[in-house]
Write a structure and sequence with these properties.
single chain; 305 residues; globular
């Protein structure tokens, strides 16, 4: 009972804060790199995990977003402590960002079936560059557009919780809590706070097929709640075929293959469901995930989350 009181207090504190506008990269295969938004995920796989996500969004659109999210995490003390880091490169029009964050998670057993609840902290920085010369403006004397922003360093921190068992998971997080100015002067161009919620599970249909539904929620000020709904069908723990619907924004699909219990590779594509679809050829992703276990028994079966 005490554990669930802690969860309730954390949730209440997280969502009593204000939301802010969407700024961070969005991935169709985000469920394969949950540590990107939630530090409590660090070490939860029980092995050293390397995951790389590459995304090109709105192909054919001038200044289209291009994002890469690299993560590395592992347990560092039995199953109680986990640590990792994220390196994110994101370019949208004249704005280029490089984010580096270290994560630390502490987890506790809450049931005899191996379910765990983890609390995580994230700390790091965002290196920002803005080339104002690439902008088209009707007011050449605008003081916010006269100078470029070069190597602006914004430190930040975040927090999160993550619960997982062999069949179910959920998490809540805010990876960047501080509202930092892009140029160090204006209070109108801020790195604004984001809130994330994830939930999902796995169910057996028969000996060959499994289903893995999942959802991700994003909340920021000045924008409606963003919701990603995905459903993956898994054949013999090898082939993953899934679909995603980003409510009111896009729909897509992904295919992944588990070459070994350690190595999984995936590709994804999505199309905007708004008028933006007329101006681009869609978005594309590539994912690579590898688990390395130093224990003698090795990795017996792939992890689903």
């Amino acid at each position: 009972m005490r554990t669930f009181k802690v969860i309730f207090v954390f949730i209440a504190a997280l969502f009593s804060l204000k939301g802010y506008s969407q700024q961070d990269p969005i991935f169709t295969q985000s469920f394969d790199n949950m540590m990107y938004v939630n530090p409590a995920y660090a070490g939860s796989r029980g092995v050293l995990n390397f995951t790389d996500l590459n995304r090109v969004q709105w192909v054919g659109f001038d200044g289209n977003p291009r994002s890469n999210a690299l993560s590395l995490n592992a347990p560092i003390y039995q199953e109680s402590l986990g640590a990792g880091f994220n390196l994110i490169n994101d370019a949208v029009g004249p704005i280029k960002q490089t984010m580096f964050f270290g994560d630390l998670a502490y987890s506790i057993k809450i049931r005899g079936n191996g379910a765990r609840l983890a609390f995580g902290l994230k700390a790091g920085f965002n290196l920002i560059n803005v080339n104002s010369a690439n902008l088209t403006t009707t007011d050449l004397s605008d003081p916010l557009l006269i100078q470029n922003i070069q190597n602006r360093l914004n430190a930040n921190f975040g927090t999160g919780i993550y619960y997982h068992s062999s069949k179910f998971y959920f998490g809540l997080s805010s990876p960047k809590i501080l509202n930092r100015s892009y140029d160090g002067v204006s209070m109108n161009n801020l790195e604004k706070r984001h809130y994330f919620g994830v939930v999902g599970g796995i169910t057996n249909l028969n000996e060959d097929w499994k289903l893995k539904p999942s959802a991700q929620f994003r909340l920021t000020q000045g924008a409606p709640i963003s919701v990603d709904l995905s459903l993956a069908s898994i054949y013999r723990d090898k082939l993953w075929i899934g679909a995603l619907y980003r409510v009111g924004a896009a729909y897509g699909m992904f295919v992944q293959f588990q070459f070994t219990p350690q190595l999984k590779v995936g590709v994804a594509s999505d199309l905007a469901s708004s008028q933006l679809r007329s101006y681009n050829s869609g978005s594309f992703e590539f994912m690579l995930s590898y688990d390395l276990n130093f224990k003698k028994e090795g990795i017996r079966s792939p992890r689903y989350f």
